[in-house]
Amino acid sequence: MVYAEILAGGTGSRMGNTEVPKQFMKLGSKPIIIHTIEQFVVHDKIDQIIVVVPKAWINNTKDLIKKYIYQAEYIAVIEGGPTRNESLVNGIEWIEQNNGINDEDIIVTHDAVRPFLSYRIIADNITAAQQYGAADTVIPAVDTIVMSKNNSEIFEIPIRGHMYQGQTPQSFNIKLFKQTYLKLTETEKEILTDAAKIMVIKDKVVKLVFGESYNIKVTTSYDLILANSILENLL
């Protein structure tokens, strides 16, 4: 089976003083999270959707899904963990408890606040995860990347042609990801916030899937203005 796990466990502190977490803020006429869920609902290769949210927002999320999405019966809403990776693992544990995990099962993990991913990006993630075991969505870096170790002086300027900006989805063979995650030390679990990096430090192949510049993450108030502009041009 192919699962989609939408990660909506954050509170969105960088959005500023808002009444609701950023994933529940309106984009056009619907909450951001609903736009994101819809991209997976319409994809014919997705068998089950899991939405991971803060405990206090589980019932609200279920109500929103019932209100906006017709095929709500195959969307599970579960509690997230204290970190992104632990939320991802919570989704895998839900799968294992409810369906079991088969050798070929794939999970496509995606930020709830990236509402503009395309059918093609999801399909490419699934194909890459099936062939390589892990995939990460990226776009080539446009600007020069400058590295600093002390936030004051340049440490290194990498070759731009080797640099990519990470997006999501990040997709994995579920058994491979779980086996790799369980090999992490507790220290590694605390410092590794990126699921693809878990695979990289354990010497697993992570295939690049090319995203789109409009597959933005709505993190700040400016991003929300930009997202509304993108939405208007897509309609």
List SSEs in N-to-C order: EEEHEHEHEHEEHHHEH
| Total count of strands | 9
- What's the Cα radius of gyration? 18 Å
Strand order of the largest sheet: 5-4-1-6-8-7-9
Shape: globular
Q: Which spans have pLDDT < 50 for at least 5 consecutive residues?
A: none
Approximately how much helix is present in the residues?
A: 25-40%
Tell me the number of helical segments per DSSP (H or I, 4 or more residues long). Answer: 8
Beta-strand percentage? Answer: 15-25%
- Give the structural class: alpha/beta
**What is the averaged pLDDT score?**
93
* Main beta-sheet strand count, sense and barrel state: 7 strands, mixed
Distance between the termini: 32 Å
Write a brief caption for the model:
It contains eight helices and nine strands. By secondary structure, the protein is of the alpha/beta class.
Could you explain the architecture of this structure?
The strands form two sheets. The chain has a seven-stranded mixed sheet with strand order 5-4-1-6-8-7-9, with helices on both faces. A two-stranded antiparallel sheet has the order 2-3. It is globular and about 50 Å long. A hairpin with a 2-residue loop joins strand 2 and strand 3. The longest helix has 15 residues, at 84-98. The chain has eight helices and nine strands. It has 235 residues and is an alpha/beta fold. The two termini are 32 Å apart. Helices cover 37% and strands 20% of the residues.
